Structure prediction request, 302 residues.
Amino acid sequence: MKKVLVIGSLNMDLSVRLNTMPLVGETILGKSLNYIAGGKGANQAASIGKLGGSVTMLACVGDDGFGKVEIDTLSSLKVDTSRIKVKKDIPTGTALIYVDDNGNNSIVVIAAANDYCDIDYIRENEDLLKESDYILMQQEIPYESVEYVAKKAKELGKTVILNPAPARQLSDELLSNIDYLTPNETELMKITSLSCNDDKEIEKACKYLLEKGVKNVIVTLGENGSMLVNKDVVEKISAFKVKSIDTTAAGDCFNGALATALSKGDSLKEAIKFASKAAAISVTRKGAISSLPSLNEILDLE
Prediction:
């Protein structure tokens, strides 16, 4: 089994359940509030750990109760947390998550300690880049760190997976160093500034990214499955039909499962199908890390 290094965010999720999303200027009553260890980096690392992958986490937390919960939660799921940095006088990142009765969500992230996952911190831990085979990142840490890691990883011959969330413009240099880019359709639209309203438009946007040097684009489409586009294939992969109650960590679950399957030697199409199963199970449960499936649950899903 190959090693996966996750570099990303650790946030305490403040998850609010409500009937419907509030309109601008509207005050509504929520149904519940839960504190859950999360952050895109944490969710993806937890997914890999829970699925039996070999995973190490690089991230920063504050010297506070939220930070301790994050580290303890990941450690309990067999994620190597020994290099997570604890920052004095800086709070752990938080995410305000609103989930309605249809399972739709809106998220506001406060970066806080995640901003200290900077290039200096990466350089302090460069030995992990050399030891790892797959590097999985998101965009809740400084952009400069993402760009630096991608370039360094490619110099070292590593495989780079970037989940471009939250979406922002990506430089040509960064795109040229990405092996697997995994946006949803909204993120794809923001990254390319192209319309992504149907499969043809999504394919066109993906091919634009291939021209920029991305090796593979895997677009997650929720209940409509996913689309794989590379120089050899354009293929739509169906989703598994389930009743969704909370989509909070579905994308993170997909990315963690994808990295796990690839690290275990699965083909790309097999890895996408495995990740699709994992994400399908996750949306049937509330929460982020708490929604992540085990390996046996995925293997049992037909």
Summary: Residues 268-282 form the longest helix (15 residues).
